[in-house]
Amino acid sequence: MKQLTMFEIRIPACNRPKMLRRALNSLQVQTYPHWTATVFDDSTSPEPKEVVESFGDHRISYLRNHQRLGAAVNIDQCFSPTQRAGGNYACLLEDDNFWLPDFLSLVACQLETGNWSLILANQRVSEEGVSLRPATETTRGDWFSAGCVSPLELRATLLFMEGLSNGGLVWELDGETDLRVGFNVRETGLHEACRSLLVVSPFLFIEEPQAVWTLMPKSNTARVTESNRMINRGMQSIRDFVLRVHGDAVVSAARALALRLGLASQLVESLAYNGCPNLAGEFLRRRLILASRAFVKGLAIRFIEKDPCAAFLKSVPTSIIS
After folding, report:
1. Domain locations in the chain?
2. Nearest-5° angle of CA 75, CA 198, CA 105?
3. Nearest to 91 by CA among 23, 208, 11
4. How far is CA 234 from the centre of its chain?
């Protein structure tokens, strides 16, 4: 008899009580009842604790950090592969996001049909203060096809964007999957890309969007203090790693993505920024000016900014199951 899936929901929170209440409301209305949740509070205010207590739900527990960790470390600790409350799978629900009622039911159904150690679920987009955007507008629906995704396919997306999305991740507990980036990378804006490099086995992508990611101005997010220049330098370093380790294979996968999504110019710019515009092949034609500018900018930032991912990348596995 197959084991019942019990989910442990990890909720990093910081000084956003209204959004935390929305996230917890969305958890309480889930049609799948087998879950527990822990709020990891990194705030300076008593309000998050008051929000949790107001629900009076024994399934939701509250944990305040002994000292402020910062958004990156607070979120990262939620990715621990160790059981906290008897669950066999864990999910991340950031306090500014929420789930539609069938999210956990959808994931549980998928787990009944196969043994997956990692799942990435697609997300709809909600524009803060406006509304939930149409179901056709999602965070990962264009990037991945439903079903099995190889680590190489995931790493190819890093030449365009940040790869995984925290809010759609579900991982097996007490297994080999450890998605913690660690203390070496302090910028929240780099963690999803770094986390993508920790995926070394195929995972399941669920195309139906039952989770919701909130689009907000940067000034209202945990990334408000992070400089774009530092993020760009970190992404450049991550792409250096991907190109060095996987070479032609990852470039080929990225070229296929560029053709499918109409992102030829973006690929040329990305490769040129990393000092190798020639890898763009025929895409480089008629884009020489774009490539030249990106090449110069990429060269300059190597001298201006210290690489924020250098220490982390030394620990990343170079072998993956494609």
Report:
1. 7-220, 228-313
2. 65
3. 11
4. 15
Q: Where are the alpha helices (DSSP H) in the chain?
A: 17-28, 47-55, 71-77, 103-113, 151-157, 188-196, 228-261, 264-273, 288-304, 310-313
| CA–CA separation, 163 and 159 (whole Å) | 9
CATH topology of domain 7-220: Spore Coat Polysaccharide Biosynthesis Protein SpsA; Chain A (3.90.550)
Sign of the four-CA dihedral 228, 79, 158, 23: negative
- In terms of residues, how long is the chain? 322
Q: CA 95 → CA 17, 177, 302, distances in Å?
A: 8, 23, 35
pLDDT-derived band at 1, boundaries 50, 70, 90: very low
Cα separation, 138 vs 144, whole angstroms: 11
Q: What is the dihedral of CA 159, 165, 170, 175, to 10 degrees?
A: 40
Task: Say which residues have a Cβ less than 8 Å from residue 80's Cβ, sequence separation at least 6.
Answer: 90, 180
80-136 pLDDT per residue, tens: 999 988 899 999 999 999 999 999 999 999 998 888 999 999 999 998 877 889 999
* CA dihedral sign, ordered 253, 254, 258, 264: negative
Single-letter amino acid, residue 143: W
Q: What are phi and psi of 140, to 5 degrees?
A: -135, 0
- Please give the C-alpha separations between residue 184 and each of 65, 72, 192, 218, 313, in angstroms, as whole numbers: 19, 10, 14, 23, 10
Per the listing, tokens 């507008």 go with: 137
What are the structure tokens assigned to 167, written together?
Answer: 């809010």
Tell me the whole-structure pTM to 2 decimals: 0.93
φ/ψ region of 211 (left if φ > 0, alpha if ψ in -120 to 50, else beta) reads beta
Structure tokens at 73: 């470390």
Token representation of residue 95: 């306090």
